[in-house]
Prior knowledge:
The complex is a heterodimer. By secondary structure, chain A is α/β, with parallel strands linked by helices. Chain A has a single domain (10-250), classed as Rossmann fold. Chain A contains 6 helices and 8 strands; from the N terminus they run E-E-E-H-E-H-H-E-H-E-E-H-E-H. Chain A is globular, with a radius of gyration of 17 Å. The termini of chain A are close together. The mean pLDDT of chain A is 96. Chain B is α+β, with helices and mostly antiparallel strands. Chain B is 22% helix and 44% strand. Chain B has one helix spanning 64-83, and strands at 5-17, 20-32, 42-48, 57-62. In chain B, strands 1-2-3-4 form a 4-stranded antiparallel beta sheet. In chain B, a hairpin with a 2-residue loop joins strand 1 and strand 2 (20-32). The longest helix of chain B is centred in the C-terminal third of the chain and has 20 residues, at 64-83. Classes of the chains: A alpha/beta, B alpha+beta.
Amino acid sequence: MVKTDMYEGMLAETVMIPGHQGDYINAYFARPLGAGPFPGMVVIHHMPGWDEWYREATRKFAYHGYAALSPNLYFRAGHGTPEDVAVKVRAEGGVADDQAVGDMGGALAYLQALPYVNGKIGVFGTCSGGRHAYLAACRLPGFTAVIDCWGGHVVMAPEELSPKRPVAPLDYTANLSCPLLGLFGAEDQHPSPEQVARHEEELQKHGKTYEFYMYPDAGHGFFYYHRPNYRQEQAVDGWQKIFAFLDQHLGSPA
Amino acid sequence: MCTMIAEQIKLEGSGKSAAGWFSLRQAYVSYDHPFHAPLEHALNIDFVNEAQGLGARVSVELDAAAARSLAETILSVLAQAEAGGHLPQ
Lengths: 254, 89
């Protein structure tokens, strides 16, 4: 918690990290200044890209005391404005799950190696990033907590599976290795409340630790203040729940 | 959540972006999150020239009704042109 009489500083910059299969990708890294030790956060961007909102979210985690690293999952599509790059990836049907998991594993390893990170590292994502975050927490050992905000296609029908997405994230639930916080909108159809209930059923079946919140009068992406789906009250409460969850599972930041 | 519904086609034509006219070589058609239209999902058409970089792009984001109306209008206009003998043989 920042107090008015304390020193506060932050470093935020782009860095290069090894990602999937050792490919170097860029990432946006924001961390509090100081010796730490700080808990870490891997921050996974949404389908609209590695954009300004995600840089803000990454700095928000740093403001709250986390060394926060947001890998550019669209690095291989080329460079331009975040929107130009996201258009290309959208046309390609998104990135492959294995590649995204490899890149998130690279981000996790980068944070684990830092002397001022305490080894407790969470992963957060919204939209496709929420789905990716869940995949990471199921497929990679090493995360201490995961936050999935309205990640759709966690529950997938067989006809939705594809070479890029060959396994529904739901089917990895037995391997979920850390507590999960899920935030969803009751008016969202991707995921629908029924799909969220199916996910919850699977978590219970495997005895996983989780907290799910279904916000009324909210649809998809209700944190995004620049989009019409923004819901102020639900977004404020959602961020409070995120930091309470992280405080509980990663410990109070320095 | 992203639908991942997208197709790509090759085409020939010209488009005008903020930087001026350029040659079009591909179009991406998707029904997914738009960037500007106040919709969760939209019919998005991105006319691009991949050889000129990711910024060589002219885009529209339409609701489903507008997209259908546009598609029907394009076909109607082409049918009129064909009936009038204006299309190349």
